[in-house]
TrEMBL record:
Residues 1-247 form the Protein kinase domain. Keywords: ATP-binding, Kinase, Membrane, Nucleotide-binding, Phosphoprotein, Receptor, Serine/threonine-protein kinase, Transferase, Transmembrane, Transmembrane helix. It is found in: Membrane. This is non-specific serine/threonine protein kinase.
Amino acid sequence: MCLPYINLELRFDIWVCRGQAEKEFRVEVEAIGHVRHKNLVRLLGYCVEGIHRMLVYEYVNNGNLEQWLHGMNQHGVLSWENRMKILLGTAKALAYLHEAIDPKVVHRDIKSSNILIDDEFNSKVSDFGLAKLLNSDKSHINTRVMGTYGYVAPEYANSGMLNEKSDIYSFGVVLLECATARDPVDYSKPADEVNLIEWLKMMVTSKRAEEVVDPNLNVKPPKRALKRTILVGFKCVDPDADKRPKMSHVVQMLEAVQNAYHEDQSKLSQVGSQQSLEETSNSADA
């Protein structure tokens, strides 16, 4: 595919690919190139040269989620509100890929570094280099295991059987990473904290859920919002793929969490205003 001259900043992904037929690559990339959603980075073109592959995307200029969560961004700490906005946008993009088009698209490499962020903190899912198409008459496809350690669903890692439930697991890992600002796997941590999911389960079981939130957050989320967010993440990373919710259901759950968060914030604001009024009244009486 040749690209016409466009007055845009572009992003290029270049890699060596062995074992994927050129025809298969072209079919999949051209299908993905016609996908349009506000939370998906637009794929503008591609190039194939022997075993080399290049994808050309629109440029998104505010870094990626991994940079914001793990201190690689110089602009400060990502607020809880913006984290939820980014997660909700990402969930909507995946719901579109899985449920709104046929054949559905399984991204296969959902991770924090593949979620780009624009100036208004809208998420843009990027990097479709590993994506696979799944026709509606198939429950799964068998393919070579690809993806990033810590984010890959266990059933896919063990058997190579891939469907949209694999993306849902990866999204759940990203969600839990977003709440805690911890890597999915971190060998610098004590042994019982190396695996993010197992550590979180231990903390929740011990009724210490409030302790897991990113300590760098300037304003911590209310307990109810934090617990509900973690619960959504746990549903997504259920070891039994059949028990994981569809992405459209994840969107609904995150919207409910977001609404509850705003309600709690409004109540806290009202309490604060009432206390200020009482203090002012007491001062006047004195």
